[in-house]
Amino acid sequence: MNHPGYTVTKAPVTKSHPIQWHNLIRALWIGGLAVYIIHLNTTDSLHYYLAPTMQRLLLCCPVPFLFIAAIMAWHGLFGNSQLHCDCEHPPPSGWGRSSLMYGLIAIPLVLGFLLPDQALGSSMASQKGMSRTYGPPEIRRKEPLSDTVELDIKDLSKKTANVESSVPATKVQFVPPDEYSREFAKLAEKLYAESVIKVYPEIFSETLGSIDMFQRQFAGKAISLTGFVYRDKSMEHESHFALGRFLVMCCPADAAPFGVMIHVPNADSYPTDSWVQIDGTIGSAQVNGEDTIEIRATKVTPVDQPSTPYIYTSANSVVTYDELQNK
């Protein structure tokens, strides 16, 4: 509020630190950010940092960023060197403070250009904790387990094979335990009809979630899936490793590692973080007191890391499965 007899004046920007340089530096940073986004898109590297839905939003930014950078560059080159926007937030005074502020802002952008783009692996999975279950035990439709600590996968497979030989496939039912599990039950019916269940990356978590929910029905079924090799201290490295994938909802910051236990002779011969395709049969086992899926591998094939190593949730896994089958 102005009072009679008083005059409010703005502190002038010193000539030793003209506003033009601040505009040019900011224009360079915003323009560099736009170029970096374009670079990630042209090199097909955006999936390392954002989920597909977020990528579409980010790709709307480069053009506005370049427009803002051009305006700021124009002010930096041809604007008044002694005036700022009069918004009560003048640029930092002194070369030391300016260098510190702009340096901190520039570090992430510079590192983005210099460091290689790569997917998360076992190191991050061990810090976040590899999940080997895909649903709470109380919603799984299966018979109570025996009193033994570990379930014999081979015996279970034989038992299932005998049941399948005497009971038609149409008799196998997948009853959803609640309203929210209907999609899993419907997907389970489609998966069970396949001679070999192929776990598509597009519905990776939904497929394993359906199998995990109906473990008894799927025991002994053939399956094929791909992921990276993960190990921790609780595993018997000679015979077991986990096949892992990262489920990303928004960006790698919220990535959740999911893994499936793999039983295979000479498991320690496959390097950690290497990508493999597993062909085998579905069984069950208990890991740290939790009943979970375990695949008895009949074939392990080293493969290259896929172009999109992360997995994402599907809005409707049943529709997505049908689309993938019709390709």
Quickly list its features.
single chain, 327 residues, alpha/beta, OB fold (Dihydrolipoamide Acetyltransferase, E2P), 2 domains
| Spatial gap, N to C terminus | 70 Å
Mean pLDDT level: 81
Report the CATH topology name of the largest domain. Answer: OB fold (Dihydrolipoamide Acetyltransferase, E2P)
Q: Uncertain regions: pLDDT < 50 for 5+ in a row?
A: 8-17, 136-170
Please bin the fraction of helical residues. 25-40%
- The assigned structural class equals alpha/beta
Largest sheet: 5 strands, mixed, barrel
Could you say which overall geometry the principal axes of the C-alpha atoms support? elongated
Q: Give the SSE order as H and E letters.
A: HHHHHHHEHHEEEEEH
Number of domains: 2
CATH level-four homologous superfamily name of the largest domain? Nucleic acid-binding proteins
Rg: 28 Å
The CATH class of the largest domain is identified as Mainly Beta
> Per CATH, which architecture of the largest domain?
Beta Barrel
Quickly describe the structure.
The protein is an alpha/beta fold and 327 residues long. It has helices at 19-42, 52-58, 62-78, 95-114, 122-128, 153-166, 182-192, 204-213, 215-218, 317-325; strands at 196-198, 222-230, 240-247, 256-263, 275-287, 290-302.
